[in-house]
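Propose amino acids for all 237 sites.
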């Protein structure tokens, strides 16, 4: 029987250390909310692939959908040869999105790729280039995403220079002694000292601001935002 220690030794030799591991527990199989390692130990999976397994491991409907798709084709690249299921899922998500305005959906491989594209879309749509993010927020590990991320260690150290025109503000967390008023004051100072508000394309917030766990980023283009005056007037919202 292969042990966790043996696999970890092989991993050290074959995989770069830049790909970190939270645990030296190697999965053999999983079901619902549980994982069994290669030594037969059973665990409750609180990580769930970093909070992405909403239906648990090996949900029967997910297995059936994958098996049905494998009877048709594996990959065509939607940009090259499109297919109906992509459109159907986009339609379902568009219907769930709030607001009365028309919606469109693009599917991307990773959270980092989604953030990178959100930056591009915001800049292209607004014709502006600056992005505001928050201290403590985590957005991903590509260059643009670590530029947005509000933590030097372990994400930014040694990888500079970062993407230009990204500015960070303190995120309002009363538990950490930062109030909404503190954040707004920092925003006003940012506009006085570092960036013209008319150059701001978007504000990027991480769902786990002040944490480092899940890169769930919302990039909001500034037109139509609800900044308090005089910031609102400066941003021309």
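Proposal:
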């Amino acid at each position: 029987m292969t042990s966790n220690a043996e696999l970890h030794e092989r991993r050290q030799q074959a995989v770069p250390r830049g790909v970190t591991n939270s645990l030296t527990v190697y999965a053999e199989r999983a079901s619902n909310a549980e994982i069994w390692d290669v030594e037969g130990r059973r665990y409750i999976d609180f990580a769930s692939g970093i909070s992405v397994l909403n239906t648990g491991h090996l949900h029967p409907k997910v297995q059936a959908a994958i098996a049905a798709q494998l009877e048709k084709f594996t990959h065509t690249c939607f940009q090259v040869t499109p297919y109906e299921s992509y459109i159907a899922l986009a339609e379902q998500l568009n219907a769930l999105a709030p607001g009365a305005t028309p919606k469109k959906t693009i599917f991307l491989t990773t959270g980092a790729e989604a953030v990178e594209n959100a930056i591009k879309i915001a800049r292209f749509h607004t014709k502006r280039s600056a992005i505001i993010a928050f201290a403590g927020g985590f957005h991903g590990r590509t260059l643009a995403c670590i530029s947005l991320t509000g933590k030097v260690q372990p994400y930014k150290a040694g990888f500079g220079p970062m993407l230009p025109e990204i500015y960070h503000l303190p995120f309002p967390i009363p538990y950490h002694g930062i109030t909404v008023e503190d954040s707004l004051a920092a925003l006003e100072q940012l506009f006085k000292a570092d960036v013209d508000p008319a150059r701001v394309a978007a504000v990027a917030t991480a769902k786990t601001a002040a944490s480092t766990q899940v890169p769930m980023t919302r990039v909001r283009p500034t037109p139509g935002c609800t900044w308090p005056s005089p910031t609102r007037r400066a941003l021309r919202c």
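Residues 4-58 form a domain with the Aspartate Aminotransferase, domain 1 fold (CATH 3.90.1150.10). The helical segments are 4-14, 48-51, 60-70, 84-96, 111-126, 143-148, 180-193, 231-235.
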